[in-house]
Records
---
Amino acid sequence: MKNLRENAPILLFDSGLGGLTVLAELRKLLPQAPVIYAADLAGLPYGEKSEAEVAARVAGLLGRLAERYRPRLACIACNTASTIALGMVRDVLHVPIVGTVPAIKPAAAMTQTGVIGLLGTAATIRQKYVDELEAEFALGKRLIRHAAPELVRAAEEKLRGVTPDPAIFIALTERMRAYEGGEQIDTLVLACTHFPLLEAELAAAFGPGVQMVHGAAGIARRIAHLVEGQPMVREHEDLFVATGPQDPQMAAALAPALSSFGLKRTESL
Ligand code: DGL
């Protein structure tokens, strides 16, 4: 990249706080990287919106963020936004873009029973992108897709210090087991960046016979690869940017979690 500023940030974008699972992995690889984490809290949840609405929000917000912060790379740390808008955003932004797609390929390699559960948002699980991944990598397997918006809410609350209600995980396992072939699920794709924040709760509910797979570590490796060799200086504590008016009480409840990810400054978009 020409004239790359050494303090140019890596921009991570999600509808909410799920992309922090990607940031956690990125920190392990690039502890010195300047990062801006942007959450479209005013637009959360994306999973319940139409394709047109998600595409318009994501393209518009990333355009504004890129203009304001001039990142060296942007990562759409959200399966819903990526499966809907990745191609479009790549066409309009002059910044390398890394997306997040459901980890169907590794899951297909891991399953012994041939039955994979895919947990995502309602918008993600109906995407053609997912049909294509299934056709390419999971032919001959059974992929059981399920929308779990309650997990998005629970993950957001957990980061604000609220313990998730165990009943939601029990209900979810019962629902997954009730699908045809569901008793044989041995691999679960966490196809929403919020869900690894609940991996312990999900593992406890599904039991030791079910392994979980998600893309956070792979996305972090991809980002690290793309910025390899670039000058990089982290001059300040990293920045959390959110859309919409922030409820001061909610913001205060979230501050310790953000701080644990190195996000110690906040701004509104
Ligand atoms: N974190 C987003 C994802 O990976 C979804 C949450 C939402 O519904 O906005 O799909």
---
Amino acid sequence: MNILLIGSGGREHALAWKLAQSPSCTKLFAAPGNPGIAQEAELIDLNAGDHAAVVGFCSAHNVELVVIGPEAPLVAGLGNDLRAAGIAVFGPDKTPAQLEGSKGFTKDLCARADIPTGGYVRTATLADATAALDNFTAPFVLKADGLAAGKGVVIAPTREEAEAALADMFGGQFGEAGAEVVIEEFLDGEEASFFALTDGKTVLPFGTAQDHKRVGEGDTGPNTGGMGAYSPAPVLTEELQACVMRDIVQPTVDTLREEGTPYSGVLYAGLMLTAGGPKLIEYNARFGDPECQVLMMRLEEDLAALMLACAGGTLGEWSEAKFSDQTALTVVMAAKGYPGTPEKGGVIDLGSAEADGAKVFHAGTRLDGDQLVANGGRVLNVTAMGGSATGAKDAAYQAVDAISFESGFCRRDIGWREVERET
Ligand code: AMP
Ligand code: GLY
């Protein structure tokens, strides 16, 4: 079948790389793509916000499956318009995508379905929010309700800081996303991510990962979209995964189906492993970036066939999705300045980075003539496999060291938790 992939980051490069290897993929298009994706797919100049244009392209080119990488087109309802035109889509419709699009939507669903998560209050005015702080203790967790590119969460150590942050949020710091604010109980523990594929009914576990959100070594400094990740995450034992499936993911999928808004695609559960068991921090309606890169390195299945089964309601025919037992680890090379204003245009030479089986996924790159240059905050995702987290880390940094990218930087300690546990 012909497939159209929507997106342009490292996540989409990893998806394109895996889709291009799928026996069931005949021709892969990507819009808008990037220079890495161009090695796997034909790039199309198509605006994902123009749903009629996307539908028109699919009809004209016999596209049978559209894979939507990022959250914004999902929340905007691109899936609805494609499905209405009879085109299969990997990714949820607009309403179930509210699992990512609205923190309050997810919290209310957890309350209805008795899913373990932190206690919370939804507030729509600064006065209500400030008063609601009385019901919580420090540190205070404040979340802009809507999509805020991963920046909408504030953890305030004191009441004064919480009140100041609320004033900023209701003052328009996050635009429309901050029109409502969720105040949440602080959860203590180690974070881990659990992925599942679903067609709205069947739920198939799809791997675990841990990422590093802070820009600095030792998990310090400002939050980013993620500076590196590894999979699997052994802290999510088989037993804990079974518990997450039973108590969190399956009830979410069942509730949405029973309420007439079935969810299909990938469900990414951000979890806190608390002393009282795993609790949901948040859902994403798409793969993590860079978690997707490590999942795709390990996946031993026909990705296109799995995605079509999610879109077509036949996931029940799959008993499991097979992954390599090896560990995959990805190091993000970012442009200096990230997560503030990244330097653009820095020259990149990948050298022999891929010589020993590592894979360099392009996140924010551009071709300037024949020269690869930086074109974003997160620029490259240098990904490798190993028999342990330590082995994968060594292989990934060996590849990093083969790359010349003077205006770039990376953390040198990706995977440290797992590496420490292994020694
Ligand atoms: P989110 O965008 O919801 O993933 O939140 C960003 C980060 O804030 C998470 O990865 C956690 O590290 C932290 N966080 C969010 N909610 C909580 C919570 N209720 N308790 C503790 N930390 C949280
Ligand atoms: N790496 C975190 C995310 O994709 O949301």
